[in-house]
């Protein structure tokens, strides 16, 4: 039982949610699909019902139509009477006998009907009540004699089929609000599952529609929750008091009251400013809740996209948002992210809205979403050939869609266009250009895998964007009058590239530690795969043995290779010697700057060529291969990485991603530590 309000003392404030057997849910899902196909093929449902129907815009479609009707009536000073109806315990009240009759009337497959009829006879439930004494009371099985399950994918289509005869009755009543520009088209009601709204030209006609609805509902033993129903009467565009005619035992809204219809408050028309303020407040409340969680960076952005952003996108096409509004809200979201150290103030804004697989952060951009939704909604309304929507398109100069106008809004930029714009930036564009030289899928895996906290993710993006507050950044970008020489080596300009992999003062300490962690991951994976070590340790605690040797293998770690001829480069990071195949591999790891990836890879192969020839001759080997393992200081991975690792049968993507994660964490640590050093 799920509470619908804070008052838990009243039984009516609980919604029963059904926990069903998985196999049963699979079966009913298949049946729902069959019934949906039957309903669509035979055009059984009325146009006014948009609940849980394929190829419709659902709630949003009803809200747009409702808004157009209301604004047309008010601004053209027309008569209109409306009533909002809410069924009491709608799903719980459907009589099983009526449901079976309706399915037979609409010629649903007899096997499906028989299956449902048989199942409903065996429906049972039990109540389990936990009290304060930590004991529980469990009832005997209670037969379910009416109603359908909430939480079952079959229930929505069954319910809207049950209400379809009512919709047909209202449709054939020749009552309703007459749409301007049409001599015949009237709108008597809109339905979204059990949420109904009635429209009439006057109070008397509204009473007749209510009588039809009430009579039908009583006949099938369904009741209105009168405390959740309301009405309003307008004459010549102005609100008037109801005459309380027979059958209108429904509360009338006063001048200040509003009714929440499909999630949005309204009187006759909606108060756009009030709704926008409420929506923004709800949006930012949700965003801040998400940002204050312990979710990783990827999941925080995903939560914003799926839980916070929909609070505002639901209103796109329904209420008017200006480009200025959306830019301001997007800016506020970025400010919230910056306050939580997930996004750097000066980091690339374009990148924030690019997909993670393209090197971005994957955040949804409201302005772009708005453009896409407006274009898609306009296309939907204009391509639908139903009588109602045709007239709606002819009269709409009120909604944000402006359906009467044939001018199409500008398209939102594509991913390719956004990436080109990012790449074209003088400072921010350096990283995406470098990314093209590496393996893009693996190089962006630290973003797509969601293995880092948001703060670390944001800091690394700032490093890649080149906006960290180094001395060179302050001098060249912020135009401060300072000496930009490195605070450590005092020779080169203190750029972010210099800090991450170019400062000789910290090369044998910080860079070496980063390098050894990466090499240690690879070494441990090799000795584990060769069963030279039983279990794996955490990569940051693993200490490689200098020499591990068996009858088949020999593995060296950071050992000087002695040769007959003096060779300058004689200490590769790892040597893997296969005694049986008479083959050896020299593995060397490097973490250069982004723009030196390909150059470093070539240099490593050249560097160890002479040693490989000497080693081959000494041990009479068939082949010695140099394998350069290059991951830049910001995590860009060589395009050849998988090829090299496959030669030693280590085409292990999780291992590559662990090495990348280690590099990124160490680079962030190095930069933070460096910037905290006082001169």
TrEMBL record:
Domain Reverse transcriptase: 1-266
Top-level taxon: Eukaryota
Xref: SUPFAM superfamilies: DNA/RNA polymerases
GO biological process annotation, one example: DNA biosynthetic process
PROSITE patterns: RT_POL (PS50878)
Xref: InterPro entries: DNA/RNA_pol_sf, RT_dom
PANTHER family: REVERSE TRANSCRIPTASE DOMAIN-CONTAINING PROTEIN
Protein name: Retrovirus-related Pol polyprotein from type-2 retrotransposable element R2DM-like Protein
High-level lineage: Eukaryota, Metazoa, Ecdysozoa, Arthropoda, Hexapoda
